[in-house]
Specification:
Strands 9-8-11-10-12-13-14 form a 7-stranded mixed beta sheet, sandwiched between helices. Strands 21, 26, 27, 28, 29, 30 and 31 form a 7-stranded antiparallel beta sheet that branches. It has 23 helices and 31 strands. It is flat. The longest helix is centred in the N-terminal third of the chain and has 20 residues. With about 700 residues, it is an alpha/beta fold. Helix 3 links the parallel strand 5 and strand 6. The C terminus is likely disordered. Helix 18 runs antiparallel to helix 19 and helix 22 packs across helix 23.
């Protein structure tokens, strides 16, 4: 079979799966109930209530009829073909129902039942065995522990979510994938009264088989979906989600995410500074940025942001113009934007001149505040139009005060009559509670906001949006020497000397050093030197007094004896490989560069201010690894504390090119075998003056899935 026929077959298979998932012609409800007080009764009632016209097969051994539909005692006795099975029986009975789905070749089964991986080891084992048998039979599973699917355009409300009973289910372009089933109802109940329409809503539960990424790919190919919204608690399907997000960006379908995990709660204790510094939130941001996903911080922003970004591209800068007829309300938005780091810019000279020609005079203040009573007669619309047309800003916020509550005519005159609305994103904040005004804005394709916080959040999210990072090809020959060092290494961690050998194999310069296995003289070395205990089992040596700097050569013997004795006393279980005597190095700044293979999103690389206070400064940035030299250079620009490297206040410029190349080299560890290097860190890396390079003076390497001897 040719490659083209394989692709055609795959496309047809994907189409069949999408149809069975979102638009099944026959649905079996396993565990259906006739008691309206029970959750199990909801899918059947909701399907008919919202216009489903396909066949419904209730499965219940104690009933012959449920809500007017003939019921069957078990799945295999129901008349086929069945496209989708919705399973609501207790967890112990679920595997048998899945086995019947396999026997009947039902394409998709959604499992509402809980009691699997979320309960721990035994539940996870049961879940994995169920997935294994389903996959072997070509049956795909959604869930377990999920609330189901709603296809608004297809009139298929296959869910137990109670909100659906009273929802209007207005069709629209927004599709939602949520790891929390209840949040689908929360979004619907908040968004639909404002006229926001949806296409697909999917609860994924435990993601035992079908996950966020694969479903997002289906939505990229869905003609009714214009924006993909994600409610995430964690990443379980990162590679597929990355691919889907890139495809969505190319197709002009923004992906917008709300992810839990902003706080430091849950940050793991890590061996390296890199692990301690990078929590789940920083890594999530790196993932979103890498793949062109917009991140919002507020639940309401999740459904308010789409109108702001639809049909627009990522901005060139972070500049926003604000126009208002009510200063206090606008000041709340401006204040929040400033906290978030956006630049609120005054109107340009060109904007001021163009308006003056229309006998409209405004100041060059950052906030264009129209005096009370002066917004009428088309003045507000004229000012807004000029701001939208001008290239001095990347987005515009229009704030309307109490008059927006009294009638829609104010919104028509001030917003809808403005020109150039397609030139850049426009956010409209209605200061009073003006629900009808928000509906009017939505009907006209304009992003309306109920609170100043969500308005600022959405605008900031847009200003932070960037295209997916280029996926450059990295030559695997770069890793030949590094792979050899890794293959010869033993144990869970490398000591500093062995770590530096790996860094040198990657092409990173390391400080001249010598390993002393006993208190010998170093008469042939020039001093002063650094003396350090050499042990992979004592990673943070400075914390335990195991590093001495600027030691004269004549004092090395005495210092080495003290350090060896102290280490053996304090860490009797540690493997002590001797003492490392290292040439002292100096430069413009110390930085930390780190690598970590994250369990959720995969390899990441970090750059930050280095030295012993690296964790205290919290001045760093993270990217998905590997990175290109250009990406590494952008990271250097991003860390504010590293402005000293760029000749800050006439200081000598540092060798940023050498630093960027070293960051790229360390990030190439991502191309090694996935079970090889778990963490690697150089702290500090001394950055010298321009043209003089960098040098690594301390390092740590941790391997995945290798036994660890000694202490941690």
């Amino acid at each position: 079979m040719s490659a083209s026929s394989d692709a055609s077959s795959d496309a047809a298979s994907d189409a069949r799966l999408r149809e069975a998932l979102f638009a099944p012609r026959c649905i079996a409800l396993v565990g259906a109930s006739a008691d309206v007080a029970k959750n199990n009764s909801r899918p059947q009632r909701f399907l008919r209530q919202h216009g489903y016209t396909g066949r419904i097969l209730p499965i219940n051994p104690g009933r012959t009829e449920i809500f007017g539909e003939h019921a069957y005692p078990e799945l295999k006795l129901a008349p086929g073909p069945i496209d989708h099975a919705f399973i609501m029986v207790p967890a112990p009975a679920v595997p048998e129902v899945v086995a019947q789905c396999c026997e009947l070749r039902i394409p998709v089964a959604t499992i509402f039942s809980a009691g699997f991986a979320e309960l721990g080891g035994a539940g996870l084992a049961r879940q994995r065995e169920m997935v294994k048998s389903a996959r072997a039979a070509g049956v795909r599973l959604l869930g377990p522990n999920c609330m189901g699917i709603v296809n608004v355009h297809g009139a298929t409300a296959l869910t137990v979510n109670a909100v659906i009973e009273h929802a209007r289910l207005t069709p629209g372009p927004l599709s939602v994938i949520s790891q929390s089933g209840s949040m689908l109802g929360s979004l619907l109940s908040r968004a639909q009264p404002r006229g926001v329409g949806f296409s697909k809503l999917v609860s994924v539960g435990n993601e035992c088989d079908l996950g966020v990424g694969e479903i997002a790919e289906m939505l990229v190919d869905d003609a009714d979906t214009g924006v993909i919204l994600l409610f995430l608690e964690t990443f379980r399907d990162a590679p597929n989600l990355a691919r889907a997000a890139r495809r969505a960006f190319a197709a002009g379908k923004p992906v917008i995410a709300y992810k839990l995990g902003r706080s430091a709660v849950g940050r793991r204790v890590a061996t390296s500074h890199t692990g301690a510094m990078t929590g789940p939130d920083e890594i999530a941001n790196a993932f979103f940025r890498e793949h062109g996903i917009i991140r919002v911080d507020m639940l309401e922003s999740l459904f308010e942001t789409p109108r702001l970004v639809l049909a627009h591209h990522p901005p060139a800068g972070r500049r926003v113009a604000v126009v208002t007829g009510t200063g206090g309300a606008a000041a709340m938005v401006v204040d929040r934007l400033g906290v978030l780091g956006a630049e609120v810019v005054p109107p340009s000279a060109g904007v001021i001149a163009n308006l003056a020609a229309q006998d409209i005079h405004i100041s060059d203040a950052p906030l264009t505040d129209i005096p009370m009573g002066q917004s009428v007669g088309g003045r507000y619309a004229a000012i807004l139009s000029e701001l939208l047309r001008s290239d001095h800003c990347d987005a515009v916020v229009a704030v309307i005060g109490s008059s927006s509550q009294t009638g829609s005519q104010v919104i028509v005159e001030r917003v809808l009559e403005a020109g150039h609305r397609d030139h850049k994103p426009l956010a409209v904040f209605l200061a009073p509670c003006a629900d009808q005004g928000l509906v009017l804005l939505e009907q006209n394709g304009i992003a309306g906001f109920r609170t100043p916080e969500s308005c600022a959040d959405a605008v900031n999210a847009y200003l932070n949006w960037s295209a997916p990072a280029p996926q450059a090809e990295h030559a695997r020959c770069d890793l030949t020497d590094a792979a050899a060092v890794v293959s010869r290494s033993q144990g869970a961690r490398l000591n500093e000397s062995a770590s530096c050998r790996l860094f040198a194999a990657l092409g990173i310069k390391v400080a001249e050093s010598r390993v002393l296995t006993h208190a010998a003289d170093c008469a042939d070395m020039t001093g002063p030197v650094a003396v350090k205990i050499l042990s992979a089992d004592i990673p943070h040596k400075t914390d335990f007094g195991m590093v001495s700097l600027n030691v004269p050569i004549a004092s090395v013997r005495r210092e080495a004896e003290r350090m060896l004795e102290d280490a053996r006393t304090r860490f009797p279980a540690a493997r002590i490989d001797g003492v490392l005597v290292q040439r002292m190095e100096h430069g413009i700044a110390e930085v930390i560069i780190g690598y970590r293979r994250d369990s959720e999103v995969g390899p990441v690389v970090l750059l930050g201010a280095g030295g012993t206070a690296a964790e205290l400064r919290r001045s760093y940035c993270v990217r998905i690894a590997p990175v290109t030299v250009d990406q590494a250079e952008s990271m250097i620009d991003e860390v504010r504390e590293l402005a000293v490297l760029r000749g800050y206040r006439n200081l000598p410029r540092a060798d940023c090119a050498a630093l960027a190349n070293s960051m790229r080299a360390l990030s190439l560890l991502a191309l090694l075998d996935a079970r090889a290097v778990s963490e690697a860190e150089i702290n500090p890396l001394i950055v010298k003056e321009e043209g003089q390079g960098v040098v690594a003076v301390d390092g740590l390497v941790v391997f995945a899935d290798r036994p660890c001897n000694g202490v941690s």
